[in-house]
Design brief:
Layout lengths: L7 H9 L3 E6 L35 H12 L7 E6 L9 H12 L4 E8 L6 H11 L4 E8 L3 H6 L6 H13 L3 E8 L6 H11 L6 E6 L2 E2 L3 H8 L7 H14 L5 E4 L9 E3 L6 H13 L3
Parallel strand pairs: 1-2, 2-3, 3-4, 4-5, 5-6, 6-8
Antiparallel strand pairs: 7-9
Helix pairs in contact: 3-4, 7-9, 9-10
Amino acid sequence: MSHHYTSVNTYLTEMFGEKIYKLSLSAGLSCPNRDGTLGKGGCIFCSEGGSGDFAMSEGGIYKQIEDAKALLASKTNCRRFIAYFQAFSNTYGPIDYLRSIFTEAINHPDIAVLSIATRCDCIDDEILNLLIELNKIKPVWIEMGLQSVHPQTLELIRCAYTFEQFKKTASRLSDAGIDVIAHIILGLPGESRDMILSSVKEVCKLPIKGIKLQLLHVLKNTALADMYEANPWPMMTMDEYCQLIVDCIDIIPEDIVVHRITGDGPRKLLIAPDWSTDKKRILNTINQLLSTKL
């Protein structure tokens, strides 16, 4: 696969000379699209865990890091990690609190990178200055959900931001030396294959350093689940999805790091597609399709 795109594992190994694992952490924050500022309930696909269903959630940041490391200890002898603030919008909070938790994470001796998931409308001048300060200590990544470049889709999924807002924030972060990783969801209702590829093509024109391609999961207790159960739409088969990923990879420049080509949905919450739980089979199929292009 490395012959076709720059994977995050390849990128990190080249940067640090060893394998780096991600530790999912919780800052205990919310989102302006959930607390009533912009909307309630969040985007239609967002779970009750705010897309952080696998994150550690108990104790302070140092304890969360140590607990997450302990869970990985039986699987790997990895020595360095990414501190990934995943659930909800992790720059949506008081600046003093954000400085405290991010500083605690980035100063942990085993943390190599600080990665912060957030929204494009949750980064003001004060937060940008904090990110610049942190980036002088260790690399800081900002992971921003875009999902689609198409206005009708953004309205349907109720994300409460626009592609223009995303572009502006991505440029500000890039100009400040902060790496931006854009999230795209593949398989959103009403989107054709050409629309998905158009989103990937357009976002790759922006000053981003990474991209995540996320399979749409219909999860219990979401507005998307209500829509799907009331009027199910045809979802991609595994083979269709794997071919779409290969087509996306053909578009992505080699200097943009691919951080994800599928995704994990919590089994206890997953409604569809059921094939998405077999991650190994999905990745093997994508590998096989890519190998035929050599």
